[in-house]
Design brief:
heterodimer, A: mainly alpha, MetI-like fold, 14 helices, B: 322 residues, alpha/beta, eight-stranded mixed sheet, four-stranded antiparallel sheet, 11 helices
Chain lengths: 306, 322
């Protein structure tokens, strides 16, 4: 187990280092931030002074090493725009993003799990058909479209739920649905096919032959086997929601990391972009690590293989 | 005392190509404490007969089309699915399946799986469950069972897993045990152990056993009587010694001739020419006729069942004329 963990941690660290290089280089391809920070008619001497002040006059690789050295001590520099530490800016927004992603994931699993399981149990029945319809709708409707529809119906027409911002528990409902909508389709299909596989296995046949009630067979003995592929998928989706929720965050004016990073990209606020993306990368790696570790909880064979 | 009586059982599989008559008019009986061997080639309907008794046919396609199955006087074909699961499967008829490597659920502990039938059939619950599970595992000779309750199937060898499967089956002291090729997937030395185990279980509980196998050697070592199946029908039934010494049906004779023997000088193994017929559109008359060396004109009609005395019956025209 410790060797396995060490191996995964090393892997994760390499992934994060790679992400840091990519984001560092790419953010600097977007243009010169000085031109956005200073008025158009600023004299060349002022521009040069500001560039030196921000360290942007040095060679790119020197800039990267300085950035990395500081980053390792938790210093991601100050936001050019907000004049406060970039890391603090990101960390302040992080709880909101985690809240939204968790609720989105919860919503998608809450829908996908029963539909997927029942579709497999009653293959070809009406639940299976509804499940397929859900899957199709999920794949066909992008998050921004779902988000706008939800606002139109539940916030404007029916006035049941708030349309934007963060507040009480009711604020998270619509953005969570918009975020969790798309994964429902894929999750339903994964659960359905995993359940079909398991339900056709010898051990389920034996359980039936020994008079195990059908409900127990499905929800206990089969489901835990089917949970293994689902778990892999949940890890990927949770990570994706943490990092990729900027569309939903923007539509619902949700004060999360995604929206902050998008705004920082537009204002070429490099430290904030770097801190935000790197933090998302760390969360991504962490959630995958968590999934890897949780396999052992579900599957005893993996526990022993480590 | 007759435990199980099956009369004219018909099991159909509704496939896209047509209706496959997997079991076509099978009649048999098993007494308490008796072992009946059901032998035949792959596809002869042995397993389908076993599954029909529990009504565990392939979902959607499998159906019992006719006949009767009586266990201790209860007509099983008329029971509802719920009653069958609650009162028959696992409690009065239990099954041991072929492959111990896949018969156990990989993500549940042995304790949970052996305890499941005990729990579901109300034999033991709560605090008493643990000791009941240990007791059953002891009966199938799992060493130090109290320390292995939390272990998972992959931590057991093939032979031990088959013992665990046997423990799941005998936990509720079923009256009838259906063992479908219980030794096929195991090494020869382990096979002997499992056969000894089944015999001991029978001695302890007085259960009837239906042993489904294609291995005539295994059948000979465990069975009191043997029924030979061919193309969905039973062609011959006889007490075990009598079947091996004086087989009456040409198919049984051909099967026995096909067993390789140590020290046999023949270069080639004896084989039965041809293939078993399709059960979607079976031949009229004797189904073995196309492959039979002793075929006559009469074989175009179905042969009657001839009683040869002492519980020996066979379906062949030669027996009537001889």
């Amino acid at each position: 187990m410790p060797r396995f963990l060490l191996h995964r941690l090393l892997h994760g660290a390499l992934s994060i280092l790679g992400a840091s290089i990519i984001i560092f280089v790419i953010s600097r391809l977007s243009g010169d931030p000085i031109l956005l920070l200073l008025p158009n008619d600023a004299p060349a001497s002022v521009i040069a002074a500001m560039r030196a002040d921000l360290g942007l006059d040095r060679p790119l690789w020197t800039q990267y090493l300085i950035f990395l050295q500081h980053a390792l001590t938790g210093d991601f520099g100050r936001s050019y725009r907000w004049q406060m530490p970039a890391l603090k800016l990101i960390l302040d927004r992080l709880p909101a993003t985690i809240e939204l992603a968790s609720c989105g994931l919860l919503f998608s699993v809450a829908i996908a799990l029963p539909i997927g399981v029942l579709s497999a149990v009653h293959r070809g029945g009406w639940i299976d058909r509804i499940g397929r319809l859900f899957a199709m709708l999920g794949q066909a409707m992008p998050a921004f479209w779902v988000g706008l529809l939800l606002i139109l119906v539940f916030a404007i027409k029916l006035d049941w739920l708030p349309a934007f911002g963060q507040g009480g528990p009711s604020h998270v409902i619509l953005p969570a649905i918009a975020l969790g909508w798309y994964p429902v389709a894929a999750q339903t299909r994964v659960i359905r096919s995993a359940m079909l596989d398991v339900l056709d296995s010898d051990h389920i046949r034996l359980a039936r032959a020994l008079g195990t009630p059908e409900r127990q067979i499905v929800w206990k003995y089969a489901l835990r086997n089917a949970a293994i592929p689902l778990l892999t998928m949940l890890g990927v989706y949770f990570a994706g929601m943490l990092g990729g929720s900027f569309v939903v965050e923007t539509i619902f004016a949700w004060p999360g990391v995604g929206r902050t990073v998008v705004e920082a990209v537009f204002s070429r606020d490099f430290p904030v972009v770097q801190a935000g993306v790197l933090f998302t990368a760390i969360l991504f790696v962490a959630s995958n690590l968590l999934v890897d570790l949780s396999y052992g909880l579900v599957d005893p064979r993996i526990r022993d293989a480590r | 005392m007759t435990l199980l009586t099956v009369e004219n059982l018909q099991t159909h599989l509704h496939l896209q190509r047509g209706i496959l008559r997997a079991v076509d008019g099978v009649s048999l009986h098993v007494d308490g404490g008796e072992t009946l061997g059901l032998v035949g080639e792959s596809g002869s309907g042995k397993t389908m007969t076993g599954l029909s008794l529990l009504r565990l046919l392939p979902e959607g396609s499998g159906r019992i089309a006719g006949g009767s199955i009586r266990l201790d006087g209860t007509e099983l074909t008329e029971l509802s699915e719920t009653t069958l699961a609650r009162d028959i499967r696992g409690s009065r008829i239990a099954m041991i399946m072929q492959d111990p490597m896949t018969s156990l659920n990989p993500v549940f502990s042995i304790g949970d799986q052996v305890g499941s039938p005990l729990r579901n059939h109300g034999i033991a619950r709560g605090a008493r469950l643990r000791s009941a599970v240990i007791d059953v595992l002891q009966r199938v000779r799992i060493p130090s069972p109290d320390q292995r309750l939390g272990d998972y199937p992959h931590q057991f060898s093939g032979g031990q897993r088959q013992r665990v499967v046997a423990a799941m089956a005998i936990g509720c002291t079923p009256r009838l045990l259906i063992a479908d090729e219980p030794t096929t997937a195991l090494d020869v030395t382990i096979q002997v152990q499992i056969i000894a185990l089944l015999r001991r279980i029978q001695g302890e509980t007085g259960a009837g056993i239906i042993l489904i196998t294609h291995d005539l050697g295994v059948a000979a070592s465990l069975c009191h009587r043997i029924a030979v199946m061919y193309a969905g029908q039973i062609v011959e039934t006889a007490p075990v010694r009598r079947l091996y010494r004086a087989p009456a049906h040409p198919y049984t004779r051909a099967l026995l001739a096909a067993i390789p023997r140590l020290g046999d000088k023949r270069a080639r193994l004896a084989a039965i020419p041809g293939q078993p017929p399709s059960l979607i559109d079976p031949p009229i008359g004797c189904r073995f006729a196309p492959r039979c060396a002793e075929r006559m004109d009469k074989c175009a009609q179905a042969p009657p069942l001839t009683d040869l005395g002492d519980g020996h019956t066979a379906s062949c025209w030669k027996l009537g004329t001889a």
